[in-house]
C-alpha cells in the first residue's frame, strides 16, 4: 500500500492498480508492508528469495537496468530505502527503540549492495527484531488497557509522524503507549464502543496483530525489503510476491474461482464485507455482510475437521476459501450479533466481478425547448480492464473495458440520449491499450497519448479507427483518485476540445508507465511457456513517461478540470505530488491532431456561471462546504487532544474523514445512484447539450 504523507496522520491508500496489455498504468502501488511466520523460529531467507533479490536489483540498477531513470542503486537510494523499510514497519515509532534505529542505520549506505548480492540477512534481522519489540509492546499495551486512565487531564498526542523520534528507553516507550491507548479508547468511544467492550476490543486487536506478524512468511519479508528499495526510485516500481501477483492478476481479469465474497480482517477475525451479486455465496443465500468466518473445511463430510481461522492471516484464509469451480468449501460462520457457530456448504464457481466492470444508466434531467426532459447516459468505469489471458488465447468474448463501453453507448443510442457522462472518479488506471481504445470511442482518429522512453525517444499512440461510437455532448467526471489511464482519456478529450472535464481541481497526476514482468520468465527467457508460473512473483517497473496529445505530461500536475465542483477529495493529500520520490513534470512537442472545437472559453465560462449559481442555492453543497472548512481547520493540526471533553468537542475528525473518503473509493456502493453531486454534473451536461444544439442550429 502506497503511503501518502501530510503533516499529521499518514494515510495508507488501498491499492487500486490494474494491469494490462504491454504497459501498466496505475496510480497506486501494491506494496504489502504488514502481513504474514513462526513465532518460535526466526525467519530466514530461502535460496530462491536470495536469487530473486539479485534479479530485482539487476532490473532497476543503472544504465544496464530497465528503469526509466537509469540511476544507479547507490548510497542515496539505500538511505531512502532504509527510511522506507523502517517507516513501513513502524510508522508511528511505537515499537523500535532509538538504539535499534542507530544500530540499523549503520548499514544505511549498503542496502543496495545487499539486494545486488542477494544478502538478505539484514532485512530479516530487522524484521525479527520487530517481532521481538511487538512482544514487548503488546505487554505494555495490555498493562495500560487494564489500568484506570484519566481522561480529564489536559494533554495531547503528537500526530506528526515526521517529527516523532524513537523512544530512548522502556520508560519513554511506556509513556508513548499510555497516550496511544487513551487515544484508541477515545476513538472507540466515538463509535459507541466503550467500557469493558472497548478494552476487550483493544486486547484482541494487539493480540491479533502480534499473531499475524509472527505468521508472516519469508517471501513477504523479501517483498517489504525489495519494495523499500524499488519505491526509492519512484513510487510505482514494486515487487509482487506470489500472493500479491496472483491477486493482481485476478483483479486484472475481473474473474476468479471461489465463493464470491469480499473479506476483511478486523481485530483478528475474518469478516464478510461484500457478497458479489450472482456469485456462489449470493446464490446459496446463507452468508450475510458482517458475518464472521471462524473456521474453514475442505471436505463435504459434516464430521470432517474444520480449521480454526481466528487470528489467521487474511491471505491464508482467502487461499483456503478460494478453489476450483465445482468443489465444495464448508464455512464455520458466527452471524453478526450471535454467538452460535453455523456451518454453511458452498459450491465454488467461476465468479465474474460484475461490480468492477463498466455500468451504465440513463437518467432524465431538466427540460428541452420542446418540453421533454434531456436524456443523459451515465457510465461508471472503475478501471481500464482487460482479460489479457483470454485475449491472447484468441477468445473473441474476452472481457474488455472498450468493448463494454461500446455496448453501453449502443444501448444509449437506442434510448435516444442527448449526452454521455463518463464517471472516472474512482478509476485508478489500468491498461494503456484500453485507455487508447476507450478514448477512440469519442474521437475520430489521431494521437491519444505520447510516450517517452528512457533514452528520450517519443512515440505517439493513435486511435486508428475512423468514426466515433459517440459523437454527441460528452462530460468526463474526475477526482484526485482518477489516475494514469484515466488521465490519458481525460487529457485527450480536453486537448481535442471534444468534451468537458468536471470534478476536482485536478486528477491524481500520475504520468508514468509501468510494465509488469514475471520474474520466472525474466530468468528463463528461452523457455516458451504460455502459462508461466507465478511462484517467483513479478516486478512492476516504471519504464517510460506519457504525455497528452498537446505535449504536457500529467505527472504531478494532473488534468485540470474545466469546471470545479466542491468535494472532500479535492483537499486531501493523495495526489502524485504528495508521494515520496515522484518523478518530475515535463513537456514534449505537441503531436499533430485535428481539434473538434466543441468546447471553448466562452462555453466553459457560461457553464461555470450557471453551475456556480446552482451550487450557491443548494443546501447540500452548502453543508458540504461547511464540513470542508471544518476539515481544513483540523487537517493540519500536528496534535490531537486526549482530554475527553475536548476530544468530543472537535467539529470534525480529519483523519476519520480521510479514511471514510478513501474507503468509499474502494468499498463503497458500486451502483450508479443520483445524489446532489451527480445531479449537478448532469445539470452541467444538460446545459452543455443545449448550447451545442443551439450552436449547431445556427451553423
Label the CATH architecture of the largest domain: Alpha-Beta Complex
Oligomer, anyone? single chain
pLDDT < 50 stretches:
1-40
Average predicted confidence as pLDDT = 88
Largest sheet descriptor = 6 strands, antiparallel
Q: Please state the CA-atom Rg, rounded to the nearest Å.
A: 26 Å
Beta-strand content bin: 15-25%
Structure description:
This protein starts with a strand and ends with a helix. The chain is built from 21 helices and 25 strands. By secondary structure, the chain is an alpha+beta fold. Helix 15 (485-495) links the parallel strand 20 and strand 21. It is globular and about 80 Å long. It has three domains: 32-230, no CATH class; 255-352, PDZ domain (Pdz3 Domain, Roll); 354-698, 2-enoyl-CoA Hydratase, Chain A, domain 1 (Alpha-Beta Complex), CATH 3.90.226. Residues 1-40 have low confidence and may be disordered. Strands 7, 8, 9, 10, 11 and 12 form a six-stranded antiparallel β-sheet that branches.
Walk me through the topology.
Blueprint: E1 2-4, E2 11-13, E3 24-26, H1 47-60, H2 75-89, H3 98-104, H4 111-117, H5 121-146, E4 156-158, H6 170-190, H7 195-214, H8 218-230, E5 238-240, H9 242-253, E6 255-258, E7 261-266, E8 269-275, H10 280-284, E9 292-297, E10 307-308, H11 314-321, E11 328-334, E12 342-347, E13 349-352, E14 359-365, E15 374-380, H12 388-392, H13 401-414, E16 419-423, E17 429-431, H14 432-440, E18 446-452, E19 458-463, E20 474-478, H15 485-495, E21 500-503, E22 512-518, H16 519-523, E23 538-547, E24 563-564, H17 601-617, H18 619-635, E25 639-641, H19 644-649, H20 654-667, H21 676-698
Helix pairs in contact: 1-4, 1-8, 2-8, 5-6, 5-7, 6-7, 13-14, 14-15, 17-21
Amino acid at each position: 500500500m502506497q503511503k501518502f504523507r501530510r503533516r499529521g496522520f499518514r494515510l495508507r491508500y488501498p491499492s487500486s492498480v490494474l494491469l494490462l496489455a504491454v504497459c501498466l498504468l496505475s496510480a497506486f502501488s501494491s506494496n504489502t508492508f504488514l502481513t504474514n511466520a513462526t513465532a518460535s523460529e526466526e525467519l530466514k531467507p530461502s535460496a530462491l528469495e536470495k536469487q530473486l533479490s539479485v534479479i530485482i536489483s539487476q532490473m532497476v540498477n543503472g544504465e544496464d537496468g530497465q528503469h526509466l531513470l537509469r540511476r544507479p542503486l547507490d548510497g542515496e537510494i539505500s538511505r531512502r530505502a532504509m527510511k522506507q523499510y523502517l517507516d513501513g514497519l513502524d510508522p508511528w515509532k511505537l515499537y523500535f527503540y532509538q538504539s535499534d534505529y542507530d544500530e540499523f542505520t549503520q548499514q544505511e549506505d549498503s542496502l543496495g549492495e545487499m539486494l545486488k548480492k542477494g544478502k538478505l540477512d539484514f532485512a530479516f534481522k530487522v524484521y525479527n527484531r520487530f517481532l521481538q519489540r511487538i512482544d514487548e509492546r503488546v505487554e505494555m499495551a495490555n498493562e495500560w488497557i487494564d489500568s484506570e486512565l484519566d481522561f480529564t487531564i489536559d494533554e495531547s498526542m503528537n500526530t506528526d509522524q515526521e517529527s516523532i523520534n524513537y523512544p530512548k528507553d522502556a520508560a519513554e516507550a511506556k509513556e508513548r503507549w499510555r497516550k496511544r491507548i487513551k487515544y484508541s479508547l477515545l476513538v472507540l468511544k466515538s463509535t459507541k464502543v466503550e467500557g469493558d467492550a472497548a478494552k476487550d476490543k483493544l486486547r484482541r486487536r494487539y493480540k491479533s496483530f502480534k499473531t499475524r506478524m509472527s505468521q508472516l512468511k519469508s517471501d513477504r519479508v523479501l517483498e517489504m525489503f525489495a519494495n523499500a528499495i524499488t519505491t526509492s526510485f519512484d513510487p510505482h516500481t514494486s515487487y509482487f510476491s506470489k500472493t500479491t501477483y496472483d491477486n493482481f492478476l485476478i483483479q486484472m481479469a475481473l474473474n476468479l474461482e471461489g465463493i464470491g465474497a469480499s473479506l476483511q480482517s478486523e481485530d483478528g477475525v475474518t469478516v464478510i464485507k461484500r457478497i458479489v451479486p450472482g456469485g456462489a455465496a449470493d446464490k446459496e443465500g446463507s452468508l450475510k455482510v458482517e458475518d464472521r468466518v471462524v473456521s474453514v473445511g475442505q471436505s463435504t463430510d459434516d464430521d470432517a475437521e474444520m480449521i480454526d481461522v481466528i487470528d489467521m492471516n487474511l491471505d491464508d484464509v482467502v487461499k483456503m476459501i478460494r478453489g476450483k469451480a465445482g468443489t465444495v468449501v464448508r464455512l464455520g460462520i458466527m452471524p453478526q450479533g450471535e454467538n452460535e457457530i453455523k456451518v454453511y456448504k458452498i459450491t465454488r464457481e467461476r465468479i465474474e466481478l460484475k461490480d468492477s466492470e463498466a455500468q451504465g444508466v440513463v437518467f432524465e434531467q431538466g427540460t428541452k425547448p420542446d418540453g421533454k426532459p434531456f436524456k443523459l447516459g451515465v457510465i461508471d468505469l472503475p478501471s481500464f480492464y482487460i482479460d489479457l489471458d483470454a485475449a491472447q488465447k484468441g477468445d473473441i468474448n474476452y472481457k474488455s473495458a472498450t468493448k463494454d463501453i461500446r455496448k453501453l453507448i449502443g444501448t444509449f443510442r437506442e434510448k435516444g440520449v442527448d449526452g454521455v457522462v463518463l464517471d472516472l472518479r474512482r478509476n485508478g488506471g489500468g491498461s494503456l491499450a484500453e485507455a487508447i481504445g476507450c478514448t477512440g470511442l469519442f474521437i475520430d482518429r489521431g494521437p491519444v497519448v505520447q510516450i517517452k522512453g528512457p533514452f528520450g525517444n517519443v512515440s505517439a499512440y493513435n486511435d486508428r479507427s475512423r468514426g466515433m461510437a459517440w459523437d454527441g455532448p460528452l462530460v468526463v467526471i474526475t477526482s484526485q483518485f482518477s489516475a494514469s489511464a484515466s488521465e490519458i482519456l481525460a487529457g485527450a478529450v480536453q486537448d481535442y476540445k471534444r468534451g468537458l472535464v468536471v470534478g476536482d481541481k485536478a486528477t491524481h497526476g500520475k504520468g508514468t508507465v509501468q510494465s509488469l514482468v514475471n520474474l520466472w520468465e525474466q530468468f528463463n527467457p528461452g523457455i516458451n511457456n504460455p502459462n508461466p508460473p507465478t511462484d517467483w512473483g513479478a516486478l512492476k517497473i516504471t519504464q517510460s513517461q506519457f504525455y497528452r496529445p498537446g505535449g504536457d505530461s500529467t505527472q504531478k500536475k494532473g488534468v485540470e478540470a474545466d469546471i470545479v465542483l466542491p468535494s472532500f477529495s479535492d483537499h486531501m493529500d493523495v495526489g502524485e505530488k504528495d508521494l515520496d520520490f515522484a518523478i518530475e513534470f515535463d513537456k514534449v512537442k505537441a503531436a499533430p491532431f485535428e481539434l473538434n472545437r466543441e468546447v471553448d472559453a466562452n462555453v466553459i465560462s457560461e457553464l461555470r456561471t450557471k453551475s456556480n449559481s446552482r451550487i450557491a442555492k443548494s443546501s447540500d453543497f452548502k453543508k458540504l462546504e461547511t464540513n470542508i472548512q471544518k476539515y481544513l481547520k483540523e487537517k493540519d493540526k500536528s496534535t490531537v487532544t486526549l482530554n475527553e471533553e475536548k476530544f468530543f468537542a472537535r467539529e470534525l475528525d480529519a483523519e476519520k474523514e480521510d479514511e471514510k473518503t478513501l474507503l468509499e473509493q474502494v468499498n463503497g456502493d458500486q451502483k450508479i445512484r443520483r445524489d446532489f453531486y451527480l445531479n449537478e454534473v448532469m445539470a452541467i451536461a444538460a446545459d452543455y447539450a443545449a448550447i451545442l444544439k443551439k450552436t449547431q442550429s445556427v451553423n
